[in-house]
């Protein structure tokens, strides 16, 4: 069962520190020059990752993304259109964009935003396991995503499938074993 995503702030009280280029009008029009476009896509990728990290969200719905303050600046009357947002996410999902986005489902209407890579999340989980003495203990996926024991960890609320990708990194390194496929499945750390 997927947990609800945290609400992203969209009010004037939004405390996210936007970089200076968020107020630069040409930033909202994808540039025709290939090297300029590559730099622009990279800046958008960094901005999206920072925004999602700040708001503790792991997923963007493409249909509602254009309404986020991330993709618009009312002070300069500029916004990134839906087609351009899709191009930015395509870039982020590519090797050139360091796979910082990943489409969920065949319709590509939603994307996970990897503001930390699966390997980085795996290391963070492994560090928590070491620090809390969980080696040799079997924990459920639910406990890793939602329990009081992890309530202050950055991965709390991560989609189950996304969390499983992170755990797969530990499995491949021989540092964990996952039992079962349902939400009640367990993970043993070594």
List the helices and strands and how they pair.
Blueprint: H1 34-54, E1 59-61, H2 62-65, E2 72-73, E3 78-79, H3 82-93, E4 101-104, E5 110-113, H4 118-131, E6 138-140, H5 141-146, H6 160-172, E7 176-179, E8 186-189
Antiparallel strand pairs: 1-5, 2-3, 4-5, 6-8, 7-8
Helix pairs in contact: 1-3, 4-6
Describe what this molecule looks like in 3D:
Keywords: Cytoplasm, Protein transport, Transport. It is found in: Cytoplasm. This is Vacuolar protein-sorting-associated protein 25. Its main location: cytoplasm. One of its GO terms (molecular function) is protein homodimerization activity. The chain is of the alpha+beta class and 190 residues long. It has two domains: 86 residues, Orthogonal Bundle (Arc Repressor Mutant, subunit A), CATH 1.10.10; 72 residues, Arc Repressor Mutant, subunit A (Orthogonal Bundle), CATH 1.10.10. The protein is built from six helices and eight strands. The strands form three sheets. A three-stranded antiparallel beta sheet has the order 1-5-4. A three-stranded antiparallel beta sheet has the order 6-8-7. The protein has a two-stranded antiparallel ribbon with strand order 2-3. Helix 1 crosses helix 3 and helix 4 packs across helix 6. The N terminus is likely disordered.
Which secondary-structure class do the elements indicate?
Answer: alpha+beta
SSE arrangement, N to C = HEHEEHEEHEHHEE
| Quaternary structure annotation | single chain
Distance between the termini: 27 Å
Quote the CATH topology of the largest domain: Arc Repressor Mutant, subunit A
In terms of per-residue confidence, which ranges show pLDDT below 50 for 5 or more consecutive residues? 1-13
CA-atom Rg in angstroms:
18 Å
Instruction: Count the domains.
Output: 2
Q: Tally the helices: what do you get?
A: 6
CATH class descriptor name of the largest domain:
Mainly Alpha
CATH architecture type of the largest domain: Orthogonal Bundle
What is the name of the CATH superfamily of the largest domain?
Answer: "Winged helix" DNA-binding domain. Chain C. Domain 1
Strand order of the largest sheet: 1-5-4
């Amino acid at each position: 069962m997927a947990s609800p995503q945290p609400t992203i702030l969209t009010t004037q009280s939004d405390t996210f520190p936007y970089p200076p280029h968020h107020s630069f009008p040409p930033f909202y029009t994808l540039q025709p020059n290939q090297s300029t476009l590559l730099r622009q896509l990279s800046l958008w990728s960094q901005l999206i990752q920072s925004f999602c990290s700040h708001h503790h969200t792991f997923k963007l719905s493409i249909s509602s993304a254009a309404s986020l303050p991330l993709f618009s600046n009312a002070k300069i009357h500029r916004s990134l259109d839906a087609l351009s947002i899709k191009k930015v996410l395509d870039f982020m999902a590519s090797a050139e964009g360091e796979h910082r986005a990943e489409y969920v489902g065949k319709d590509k209407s939603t994307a996970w935003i990897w503001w930390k890579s699966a390997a980085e999340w795996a290391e963070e989980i492994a560090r928590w396991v070491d620090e809390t003495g969980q080696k040799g203990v079997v924990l459920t996926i639910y406990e890793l995503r939602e329990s009081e024991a992890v309530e202050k960890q950055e991965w709390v609320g991560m989609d189950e499938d996304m969390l499983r990708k992170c755990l797969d990194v530990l499995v491949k390194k021989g540092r964990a074993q996952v039992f079962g496929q349902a939400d009640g499945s367990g993970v043993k750390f070594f």
